[in-house]
Amino acid sequence: MRAKWMNRKLPKGNLIFLLSSLTILSLLLGFITTLSILIHLGLYVHTNIFGESMHEAVTEDSRILYIDPEFKEIRRGDIVSAEVTYQGIPVEDSGEPLIIVKRIIGLPGETIRIDGDQVYINHELLSEPYAYYSGPGEDDLLMTLGEEEYFLMGDNRLDSSDSRAWGPFHIEHIQSVALAVN
């Protein structure tokens, strides 16, 4: 047996109001759910960029949309944020871990050779349209990366403290991978 109130018809205006309210509520819940999932996946915007080491791809005014590396495969050319360690010990800046923004140059297991301003990966010259040298490069380096190690460099090569100084970065110290830079 149906209740009497269930047999009543809503006036047309009330029905439109009810349907539009339900639509707005559904959209709001969808937005909140999507936002929660993105936050859970580690998606966030980073706005505090200091220095010129990634000039021109990333400047102090840049905003970077990042995701946790657990959810995106790290590839050569990706821009990442990473915690600096030296011989396994975290490097601090004013009591906080030193976090840098650099570009992935070398991947696990690869041999990196730098001769002046030329970078070679497994004996092949790397094409680097993003690299900037304000003068002749003077680097001389040969390194084979271990498992889960990455070689990071700033785009502004003569004004960057990166894997040439700190050594390779282990995957556990790569905090995030850029999805977009504005």
UniProtKB/TrEMBL annotation:
It is a single-pass type II membrane protein. It comes from the Bacteria. Residues 28-177 form the Peptidase S26 domain. One of its GO terms (molecular function) is serine-type endopeptidase activity. It holds the Pfam family Peptidase_S26. CDD domains: S26_SPase_I (cd06530). It catalyses: Cleavage of hydrophobic, N-terminal signal or leader sequences from secreted and periplasmic proteins. It is found in: Cell membrane; Membrane. Gene3D superfamilies: Umud Fragment, subunit A. The keyword Hydrolase applies. The active site is at residues 53, 102. Its EC number is 3.4.21.89. Keywords: Hydrolase, Protease. GO terms for biological process: signal peptide processing. The keyword Protease applies. One of its GO terms (cellular component) is plasma membrane. PANTHER family: CHLOROPLAST PROCESSING PEPTIDASE (PTHR43390:SF1), SIGNAL PEPTIDASE I (PTHR43390). Belongs to the peptidase S26 family. NCBIfam families: sigpep_I_bact. This is Signal peptidase I.
